[in-house]
Design a protein that fits this description.
Layout lengths: L7 E2 L4 H11 L3 E6 L2 E7 H14 L4 H4 L4
Parallel strand pairs: 1-2
Antiparallel strand pairs: 2-3
Helix pairs in contact: 1-2
Length: 68
């Protein structure tokens, strides 16, 4: 467990989350609403929704999270 995990907010764009994953060398990002954990988004989630986002317009992590 990391003392300072890399996280994203629900309103983070999919492209930004994917870039953050690449830079940090991680495949999972905890999704926060303020300081509360609401879900985890994975590299697989982002790959699944990438094409949809290209055809429908920008999407946020909160729109694809699976824990809600």
């Amino acid at each position: 467990m990391s003392l300072d995990p890399v996280t994203v907010e629900e309103d983070t764009a999919l492209e930004d989350a994917q870039e953050l994953m690449l830079r940090a060398g991680v495949r999972h990002l905890p999704v926060l609403h303020g300081t509360q954990l609401v879900d985890v988004v994975t590299a697989r989630d982002l790959a699944t929704y990438r094409n949809l986002a290209h055809s429908t317009g920008p999407m946020s992590v909160g729109e694809i999270k699976t824990g809600s």
